[in-house]
Amino acid sequence: MGLEHTSVTVEPGAEANESISAVPMPAHLDPWERRLLADPDLLADLAFAMGGPFHVMYPPRVGHNIRAFHAAFTQAGVHGTVYYGKKANKAGCVARACAENGAGVDVASVGELTAALAQGVRGAELMVTGPVKADELLWLAARHGALIAVDDLGELDRLAALATVSEPARVLIRVLPTASASRFGMTPGEIDDALAIASGHDSIRLEGFSFHLSGYDAVARAELAGELIAHCLHARALGHPATTVSIGGGFGVDYVAADAALEFTARVGRQWFHSGKSFDSYYPYHFPVPGAAMLAQILEHEDLAGRLRDNAVRLAIEPGRALLAHAGCTVFRVQGSKTRHAHGRPYRLLTVDGTSLSLSEQWFDSEYLPDPVLWPERPGAVTPTSVGAATCLDSDMLSWRRVPLPRAAEAGDLLIYPNTAGYQMDSNESAFHELPIPPKVVLHDAPGDRFRWTRDGS
């Protein structure tokens, strides 16, 4: 899913002697984000028009990320396919960017499948994943010629009955990685049974094997991909085409600079958080070899690229977060503030006009660490600031961490959380308190280095 965290160790003691203001964690900003922040009117106009919190999407960045993955495949001389993990963001403009830039879409429900089709993604460009899929999803996927990653023997039997000899279902067998405790994938014995089922049904076309690994280890992915090449060769000996290996997602995203991440990890403690809050783990917000560079690393390990070429195997990947890297942000309006004290020192506690349901990391018992940007930019003194939501839940915090904002925030100011398109925006949205779910605004480049905008049609 791309949500795996890394653990941190908080040393006891000495916290009272530390600054109550956390170290700054400024996010890497794309040129389009700098243009947005530099515009004297657009953010204020959008906030007025939306009447509450909103998300901003910039689809050209999605296209850029897709092309970077394609370039890594080309550089390695490998036949590769990118399937966007749609669960990472529901925005229709992302699926449209996939259709326009030669990427498929990985879906796991009828809703996701039909949404992708509506944005121009062809049925044969879909990968259908998820455990023990319902008959309706299997039938629709087979009908549209999607590639279906089968997770269960009973599912394969049902699919064989739903598909037809004239239009056989395109299937990958999902493999349970060795020593994995995952509930997904098939054991070696189950794989043998699946091969026998596929051999016995002309309505099944076995096109290869897939897996998904937690974490962000390039070497582990390369080595398991090599094992799946062997599975393909065995399946071919049994008469199946078996030309595809899918290694799933888990391509890291680089949010902040290495020095900021290292200082945070070395010094983090309860003294930096409102109410003495602490977390056991965080997403690795600095990732030195992100996205397409990680794919290149995988292909280089033990010459995986050469083995794929030599055996005429296509490599499929299913990035979610990495395809959305730097493609969106989330905007809240400050409604009010209070002064609180920790260790005898003051800090600000803001209330904004939305909830942490729109910044989903909090709902995985962790903290979204990239600093929000306070807009408009004005002179002032650095002010440690935590950010709370407009609900009656004391635990509904967008930033427990006391972020060192460049000045004291005032009612009416905007807080822009950067790089939130991947999993943050809408994994856990809810109309809690009957508050509307924040809309997505799509930016389009216009003449004169300007933006035009529309609301996303998803």
Can you give me a brief rundown of this structure?
Its cofactor is pyridoxal 5'-phosphate. The chain has 458 residues and is of the alpha/beta class. It has helices at residues 31-38, 42-50, 59-76, 92-100, 110-118, 135-143, 153-162, 188-199, 218-237, 258-267, 291-300, 304-310, and strands at residues 6-7, 54-57, 80-85, 104-107, 126-128, 147-150, 169-174, 204-210, 244-246, 281-282, 314-317, 328-342, 345-352, 373-375, 383-388, 397-405, 414-418, 440-446, 450-455.
Description:
Keywords: Isomerase, Pyridoxal phosphate. The chain is built from twelve helices and 19 strands. The chain is of the alpha/beta class and 458 residues long. Strands 2, 12, 13, 14, 15, 16, 17, 18 and 19 form a nine-stranded mixed sheet that branches. Strands 3-4-5-6-7-8-9-11 form an eight-stranded parallel beta barrel, surrounded by seven helices. α7 links the parallel β6 and β7. α3 runs parallel beside α11 and α9 packs across α11.
Entry keywords:
458 residues; alpha/beta; nine-stranded mixed sheet; eight-stranded parallel beta barrel; 19 strands; elongated; pyridoxal phosphate
